[in-house]
Hints:
The structure holds two protein chains of two kinds.
Chain A lengths: L55 E2 L8 E3 L2 E16 L2 E8 L8 E4 L3 E8 L8 E3 L23 E7 L4 E6 L4 H6 L4 E6 L10 E10 L18 E4 L10 E4 L3 E8 L5 E5 L4 E6 L2 E2 L7 E2 L1 E4 L4 E7 L4 E7 L24 H8 L12 H5 L13 E4 L2 E5 L3 E7 L41 H4 L11
Parallel strand pairs in A: 1-11, 3-6, 5-10, 11-14, 13-24
Antiparallel strand pairs in A: 2-3, 3-4, 6-8, 7-9, 9-10, 11-12, 14-20, 15-19, 15-21, 16-17, 16-18, 16-20, 21-24, 22-23
Chain B lengths: L1 H7 L9 H59 L4 H36 L24 H11 L1 H16 L5 E6 L5 H4 L14 E5 L1 H4 L2 H62 L5 H37 L2 H10 L12
Antiparallel strand pairs in B: 1-2
Amino acid sequence: MNTRRRFLGGAAAAALGAGLVSRVGAASLPEAPTMDKATMRPPLAPPNGRPYQPVATLNGWTLPWRMRDGWKEFHLVAEPVVREIAPGMKANLWGYNGQSPGPTIECVEGDKVRIFVTNRLPEHTTIHWHGILLPNGMDGVGGLTQPQIPSGKTFVYEFTMRKSGTFMYHPHADEMVQMAMGMHGFLVVHPRNPGFRRVDRDFVFLLNALDIEPGARTPKVATMLEFNLWCWNSRVFPGIDPLVVRKGDRVRVRIGNLTMTNHPIHLHGYEFVVSGTDGGWVRPEAQSPEVTVDIAVGQMRAIEFVADAPGDWAFHCHKSHHTMNAMGHGVPTMIGVDHRGIARKVMNVIPDYMVMGERGMADMGEMEMPLPDNTLPMMTGTGPFGPIEMGGMFTVVKVRDGLARDDYADPGWYKHPPGTVAYEWTGALPKLARAEAVDRDPRTLTVRRRGGHSGH
Amino acid sequence: MFSVFQIATMPVATKITRQRFEQAKLAVAAEMLGVAAETRRAYYSAVAAQEAIRYFDQVKESAEAGAELARRMFGAGNFSALQRAREQAFYADAVAQLARARQTAKAERERLTRLMGLWREDIAFKLPDRLPGLPKAPTELRDAEQTAMRTRLDVQVSRRDLGTLAESLGLTKATRFVNALDAGPAQVRETHAVLNGFELRLEIPLFDWGQARVARAEALYMQAANRTAETAINARSEVREAYAAYRTTYDLARHYRDEIVPLRKRISEENLLRYNGMLIGVFELLVDVRESVAAVNAAIEATRDFWLAEADLQAAQNGAAAGMRKAKRAAPAMAVGGPKPH
């Protein structure tokens, strides 16, 4: 049996260790496109092969392929990347083809897929095709089902997509470190029949978590649970793309969880059904109406709804600390503590000191204060009515009338019909019985604002 | 300095008392220089001790703010009794430290007052707010030693005695001059070539022994010349010792000024940014203040130590070291600084 063939390929002139692949049909490596932006690319309509309805990857893109002798050939390059987490913060991550997460791979049930993986990391890696039914030797578990791909080498994975559904890919070599550094990507297998469970808009994103010391740029790879950046596709609010939807569209959102904890993902304004799980499609009679779907570690879920209610609908993880950016866990609660006279004492020794948290932490969302370099505010973002006071796993589903079929551009803030926004009662108020109001010193109560609001 | 030298070289009254008189006037002159040197030391210590009060006052103030805030947080139900007690303990410690720093400053000031011999309204003298800054560059060892050869009391006296002796022996015509520091004049007689290449000079004359033709005169003179060389060599050693301390304290004080204090300042700035981002709380900021203050205080102590070493070097250069050792015995123990804050 011919088990080992070596040849030189393409521009990268990488030596292929093709020992695991008995038949390599390629005479050269397919191109490995790279991406330098962290904004969503429009869905990639398939230029060849079986037709399907392409997905939209939040803050991401779909990897182009080439057809060769009946095989769909993709080329992933595992490499160090710099990813913008949100405007104002960039991180040194590991990813694929220029970004973390890697590009979404889309193919169709029945496709023969050949994926070249070039390792430009300083250490070995593999790729595991999470959820895909494939030959054992293509499963990508370093040491168990294949030798790890050494630094500088290219390996080839070949298998046939036996069923449609929602999947992920990620390393299975030095796995904790490589995933903590941002290595993962989405894998969508479309049904052979493009009419099967067809939707108008199909969004995909991964949940991933990073722990980056405020003021630093590289994740701490030994963090187990106390991550401080809860990301969708290595982005946090206000850096996460809105999900722009045309009113009346049937919408699917596919979510995969590669963090180390579960995430109850909650959509405002709609009931949805969970139409897909790790194992495939949920039969209609088994689907139940939900407003929150809890996604466990390593799970994928597809939810579907008909976008019949226009508006700006919040869409977020319901763990409230996951809709925050980096914050200190040792910060004492200052609510209800009278600061009269104290601020001046502190300012004698720390001239730039200002009181925060006396009334709660909302000050934080309102103020633009100097922070450590490369650090996002704990809670931030500004909406049409004021500070949104969010971070992390939060974005907005923007449902609008009259959008073009392929229009994913941010339409701006929702214009509410008159009389449909909560309003202040201006009539007479009953005398409120409450504990004695503290007479506060305006000098210590007023928070000094510094700098203007920069637009983001 | 000049008048002190005059005391040391006062004319001899009688031949009988000559020996004891010589000793006494040398001791007086050295002690005068010693008192002057000790006064310089007391001055730097007093200024430093007073400067330290300001910083311990800041520590106290930060601890006071923390304790008061903790008291109110306890009242609002946000702090436990333990958390409150911890902040109170910081404050209590800070108060004790400040009291100790004040006492040290008072003691140092009184010592200076005594050394300057002040009383009545003169004791209200005002000290500067802070120690003088470090010189741009430290003195070089070579300069320090050369200054010592030129100005040091014992060396000058020894040299003058040698001249007097030569005169009394009727030696008038110097044939050449040798450097007493080379290897001692006894050897110089044989090896003239050694003279080249030495940077330090203490020149003494050698004479044409043909004039005197008395073996005893030559022996007497060479004995005195060798004694001068010994004095000079010992003086050099003392200067080197003082210089080593001077140089070390200079480098240390500069390290505090150029590295440690700016780093502490940077840390404080970064901590404030972290506070702004609610990454740390106000109590951590207050702890940071105390750490910064400790660094600034250590920098003051390092600068003070430099000026003390500088005074010692001057003493070694003018021969006051012996007198100063005596004055030091009478002085109170130095206790500037006190224990480090938390």
